[in-house]
Design a protein that fits this description.
By secondary structure, the chain is mostly helical. It is about 75% helix and about 0% strand. The chain has five helices and no strands. The chain is globular and about 35 Å long. The N and C termini lie far apart (about 25 Å). The relative contact order is 0.19.
């Protein structure tokens, strides 16, 4: 299970998944776990797409809150990927 510290972390991911028409991300996030390398790569790539999209469209129209939540999300995802054995998948997109 992905250890969300704040419910808003999950909400912001689903918000941007809707904006980006990404049903795969919604499916993975709603089940609260990454089951395989393919899903890990998808979520890692999605995170950076979400960050890019946040430059155009702020979550809840509050840039400071959006930035704060994106920082929480990256910390949660990095820890989860590491603990779940998907650190290489995260790093594949983190270094781009």
């Amino acid at each position: 299970m992905i250890p969300w510290r704040l419910s808003e972390e999950k909400e912001i991911i689903l918000f941007y998944a809707d904006l980006l028409n990404d049903d795969e991300t919604k499916r993975i996030i709603n089940k609260d776990e990454i089951s395989n390398k393919s899903e890990a790569l998808h979520i890692a790539e999605f995170f950076w797409k979400m960050v890019e999209k946040s430059n155009e469209h702020q979550y809840q129209e509050d840039p400071a809150q959006c930035e704060y939540l994106l920082e929480k999300v990256i910390n949660t995802l990095m820890a989860y990927f590491r603990n779940a054995g998907f650190e290489d998948e995260w790093e594949a997109f983190a270094d781009i």
